[in-house]
């Protein structure tokens, strides 16, 4: 993948991600489902100018949803997602998380 901004979709800002940032210097991003660990590491290093120590990924399968209305029953599915937990080297920081 050539475009680094398409690999990293958005940062995940939750209580858990804030706790990981403060205690373990880990940052959570939502990434493209087809991106691998090496592509994620390269994208974070180039976009934020930091040194990445480790990358862990997890897949989130979309839930099935069913709605009932006058026209009948409609079943759909939310899209599958992928998150990456990026551990930075000692002393490194990403500034966008400090602004929240």
Fold topology:
Blueprint: H1 4-7, E1 8-11, H2 15-24, E2 26-31, H3 37-48, E3 52-60, E4 64-69, E5 72-77, E6 81-88
Antiparallel strand pairs: 1-2, 2-6, 3-6, 4-5
Characterization of this structure:
This protein has 100 residues and is α+β, with helices and mostly antiparallel strands. It has a single domain (4-92), classed as RRM (RNA recognition motif) domain (Alpha-Beta Plaits). Helix content is 26%, strand content 39%. The chain contains three helices and six strands; from the N terminus they run αβαβαββββ. The protein has helices at 4-7, 15-24, 37-48; strands spanning 8-11, 26-31, 52-60, 64-69, 72-77, 81-88. The strands form two sheets. The chain has a four-stranded antiparallel sheet with strand order 1-2-6-3. A two-stranded antiparallel ribbon has the order 4-5. A hairpin with a 2-residue loop joins β4 (64-69) and β5 (72-77). The radius of gyration is 17 Å and the shape is elongated. It starts with a helix and ends in a 12-residue tail after the last strand. The mean pLDDT is 91.
């Amino acid at each position: 993948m050539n475009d680094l901004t398409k690999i990293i979709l958005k940062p995940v800002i939750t209580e858990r991600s804030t706790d990981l940032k403060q205690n373990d210097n880990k940052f959570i991003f939502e990434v493209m489902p087809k991106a691998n660990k090496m592509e994620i590491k390269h994208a974070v290093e180039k976009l934020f100018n930091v040194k990445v120590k480790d990358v862990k990924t997890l897949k989130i399968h979309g839930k099935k949803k069913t709605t009932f209305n006058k026209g009948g029953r409609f079943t759909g599915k939310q899209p599958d997602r992928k998150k990456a937990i990026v551990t930075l080297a000692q002393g490194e920081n990403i500034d966008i998380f400090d602004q929240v």
